[in-house]
Amino acid sequence: MVYQRIVRRALFRTGGGDAEVAHERTLRMTARLGTAAPLVSGLRRYFGGGSPRTVFGVRFPGPVGLAAGMDKDGRALRAWPAFGFGFVEVGTVTWHAQPGNPRPRLFRLPASEAVINRMGFNNGGAEALAARLHALGPLAVPLGVSIGKSKVTHADDTADVVDDYRSSLDVLAPYADYFAVNVSSPNTPGLRGLQDKAALDTLLGALSTTVPLLVKIAPDLTESAIADVLEVCSAHGVAGLIATNTTLSREGVAAADAATAEQTGGLSGRPLTARALDVVTFVAKETGGALPIIGVGGIHTVDDALRMLDAGASLVQLYTGFVYRGPGLVRAINRSTQAR
Ligand SMILES: Cc1cc2nc3c(=O)[nH]c(=O)nc-3n(C[C@H](O)[C@H](O)[C@H](O)COP(=O)(O)O)c2cc1C
């Protein structure tokens, strides 16, 4: 409540209401918090403490992670555990540093507790992230690294696409506890086509690493397309699935947000809750629970998180729910998993 009444209100006003300016300021403040180790430990004792678990061979101190896109370049890695996160996924990074799409490209839909973004993988590149991670040394919680295709690499040139992902993978492998192969962001032309059976088969066949490799899928795939993805993932020994990314659908957006809903980009937050849960449920059933799942999409309450875990997710991640509900949500989910 304190978060929603005071902190969120202040954050949303920052930058004259420009969501990306607010995001950048928050990230800078969070990074600063990370330099105060005793404060981080104290906050972590308060917000953390979820039930630990080992998934795809990695020990997670808690089940709630920070989803990809919040800290693309890993600028605040020392700080995220302070808010109770048991793991952090950085990225998506690409092999070539790139500015992303022109601004504005991030929009809040407050009546729907949602966000639309068309950031377009703005990031400093895989080598810069590797250098930052090298300088940071060991982290308090496991690190996922999300990798995607550079914009300059044409989606229909398979060999180049494979090289692009593979270069990022090679340079970041020493620092990642798992990789997320992002083939599901809607803001890079041709990227989601990599979820097609043949393209995914080629890509996964070329990515060889000892680090667990997970595939992140879109919520807009049909069940038969998801079944195809699962078949390819199983053929290549993929360690798990991350479900889901943002959606192109505008279903569930409140009337008060109708004008903003016309913005191009991926929708996240409350309108995504039911669909992401459906996808997790389908994947768990289809694989008989054999493939670890990270459930993400529209988790804004403890019940949302518990439903994901009950549906078969081993871990959950938050982005938009964290923006609207703050670290209290992470704490509440952590506590509720302790009791189970
Ligand atoms: C501003 C923004 C940027 C994002 N960037 C990425 C990204 O770079 N890579 C990725 O895999 N997902 C990205 N996502 C998707 C989230 O990781 C998450 O899958 C999605 O937002 C659904 O979860 P949520 O409803 O909790 O936000 C981004 C989401 C937002 C809102």
Which helices and strands appear, and what pairs or packs with what?
Layout: H1 2-13, H2 19-33, H3 37-47, E1 53-55, E2 58-60, E3 64-66, E4 87-93, E5 106-109, E6 114-117, H4 126-136, E7 143-147, H5 158-172, E8 178-182, H6 197-206, E9 213-217, H7 223-235, E10 240-243, E11 266-269, H8 273-286, E12 293-296, H9 302-311, E13 315-318, H10 320-325, H11 327-338
Helix pairs in contact: 4-5, 5-6, 6-7, 7-8, 8-9, 9-11
This protein binds flavin mononucleotide (FMN).
Describe this structure in words.
The protein is 38% helix and 16% strand. The chain has 340 residues and is of the alpha/beta class. The strands form 3 sheets. It has an 8-stranded parallel barrel, surrounded by 4 helices. A 3-stranded antiparallel β-sheet has the order 5-6-11. Strands 1-2 form a two-stranded antiparallel sheet. Helix 4 runs parallel beside helix 5, helix 5 packs across helix 6 and helix 6 runs parallel beside helix 7. It starts with a helix and ends with a helix. 49% of the residues are buried.
Question: How is the biggest beta sheet arranged?
Answer: 8 strands, parallel, barrel
What is the CA-based Rg, rounded? 18 Å
Ligands in the model, by name, code or SMILES, are: flavin mononucleotide
Q: Per the principal axes of the C-alpha atoms, what is the gross shape?
A: globular
Uncertain residue segments: none
Report the helical percentage. Answer: 25-40%
Spatial separation of the terminal alpha carbons: 25 Å
Give, in order, the helices and strands: HHHEEEEEEHEHEHEHEEHEHEHH
Average residue pLDDT:
94
How many strand elements?
A: 13
Strand content: 15-25%
Structure class: alpha/beta
Number of helical segments?
11
Q: Strands of the largest sheet, in order across it?
A: 3-4-7-8-9-10-12-13
